[in-house]
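Narrative of activities, Objective 1.

The group set out to show that a structural description can be obtained from nothing but a protein's sequence at a throughput compatible with the screening campaign. Below is one input-output pair from the validation batch, recorded exactly as produced.
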Amino acid sequence: MIAVLVSGAIALVVSLFGTPLAIRALVRRGYGQLIRDDGPTSHHTKRGTPTMGGAVIILATLGGYAVAHLVPIRLPTVSGLLVLFLMTGLGLVGMADDYIKISKQRSLGLRAWTKVVGQGLVAVLFGIGALMFENDRGLTPASAAISFIRDSAIVLPAVLFVLWAFFMIIATSNAVNLTDGLDGLATGTSVMVCAAYMVVAAWQLGQSCEFMSPATPKCYEVRDSRDLAVVAAALLGACFGFLWWNAAPAKIFMGDTGSLALGGAIAGLAITTRTELLLVLLGGLFAIITTSVIVQVGWFKATGKRVFRMAPLQHHFELKGWGEVTIVIRFWIIAGLCVALGLGVFYADWVTR
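Output recorded for this entry:
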């Protein structure tokens, strides 16, 4: 597991020391955050804070992953490269969105349909690639079966699997994007979820059907679990380093560049570790915040009234008078409890078998 440690450490160092360089470069270019006028008034003081910091997270993750394959020398796997492709591709879509906001001096970037098309193209390519490249055991990076902790009996045709992957990736990337509304909130939550997937992938490696003989009901049929742990560790280190500068008061924001990239990477890890529905538990805070938006919009359209003072949910509590740091810490606690619940369910499945 040396590669896992090296990956996380390198990504942490690159992110921790690379972010202040990015801050200075972004300030020189005037790449500052635009703030919505209809949001909490306390956010107006954040206007001009450098954004697009997610590029540092992406580069740190790629750097950590690359160095980890040099110590010792080991070729990258298809599964790992697919998750990194998904992260980078969605990061580029987010970067285009951030750049339009900055260049046009407005709080809205890409049009909604353009953004979905960009996300969808990357998601579809990932979904297609995930069902290709069989190894010598006949395993592809992902399975066409819908999974919770392991593959279920519900096996989708290839086309439906690609649509399922499309839905998961769009939903998760946008969920992280909605969570990225307060200093450090999305970054800190992503640290916990990525740490959970590092544990899941490492556990699957130790209990792999490839190494257990004869195969038992407890083993996992997951391809490239070691490399997926390396990817998760790189994401964890990159987010940790970035959080140093993104914590309140934030010196830099990740922007859509970071939130879409992180959401895509987390969805990719869920698909390739075959724990797709477990993501709802591990990423419980993302799910709660997204649900608050759905409820707010749906109820307003039906009745003309609002359930929350403002959605996403974190802004509702801001308008109730909660301090930003208080909200972030309490939401981190909720995120940690969700991760603990998800890992508990994951381990309970292994014990009961």
